[in-house]
Amino acid sequence: MPDNNIETSSMPSAIEWTNGELFLLDQTVLPHQVVMQKQQCAKDIWQSIKVLKVRGAPAIGVAAAFGLCISVKDKRDLNLDEFKALTVETADYLNSSRPTAVNLSWAMNRMVKHMQGAKATSSAELYDILVAEAEKIHKEDCALSYGMGEMGAPLIKDGMGIMTHCNAGSLATSVLGTATAPMYLAHKNGIKFKVFSNETRPLLQGARLTSWELGKAGIDVTLLTDNMSAHMMATGHIDMVIVGTDRVAANGDVANKIGTLGVAILAKHYGIPFYVACPSSTIDLNTKCGDDIPIEERSADEITTIMGQRIAPEGVQTRSPAFDVTPNELVTGLITETEIITAPYGEGIKNFFKGKTYD
Ligand code: MRU
């Protein structure tokens, strides 16, 4: 990991793997309570992903990789074939918890593929191999954040106002975040800038998570409701947008939290650069374009209530798409861990993966 000296010890950690046990920070109760919850079985982990105790594309992938290990940990007395079959079945089950963030299926496929290719003489040995792979995914995820930080930080100049949407922060990854990694690095380098964090209805990741973690780090952060974006851009407060992503298609179309598309359209209108921070683990070469990205529909309660308080009449009809797709022509650049990819994206993404193994 590059030594760029960012102080991370006070940053909240979404995932902790300690002595073969998995703890997840319950993000549904942040910022009022900071609670690490021990995950005991596959059902726990599935549920934690489903209800967004752990959320954010990279964090979901890492949590599921460790979660797979926890789920099969007590089954090491099975014979090798039975243990492998159970692992494959559990990976499929965990993969069914949320559809949009490709990091989940990416991590599950990688774990299963690694297990299938491993030479082990016992299930206990295979378990250790799975743990080592999950630890590798976790470590790599840290390095990806640092890489995006180094690529993106030079874009941030003194006096800038930067809008972000949802939480693509340290809470959504193993460390430093994706969209926030350039911010943490620029802040560490003494650049003075302001972050405008959209609250992100319905589940308020911007209000509860982004403003909390950036504030804790001493970054100048201002909370906005989602409908303030146009006004803030029109009145000259925003010089750049940086968001994260749940899946980037092979043509550069970007799925991210619902509301991102609106921000991108506004940014285009006002001539404001719109960047997407995306680690290679979030680029899906198997998805041709945005139309092929599965968009999660969530429950009506999340629309008719705010933090458990009902705000809409009983029986009202709702829709709850959790993500939207920003077409590549609205994207100024994809900030990856090694380069900023610009249009034409199909070609840029293909070149980015040249010579690399794509899991
Ligand atoms: O529903 P969530 O909270 O999991 O949605 C998260 C996002 O949309 C993030 O912007 C995205 O996963 C990138 S996280 C580095």
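^ MRU complex. The domain at 4-147 is CATH 1.20.120.420 (Four Helix Bundle (Hemerythrin (Met), subunit A)). The mean pLDDT is 96.
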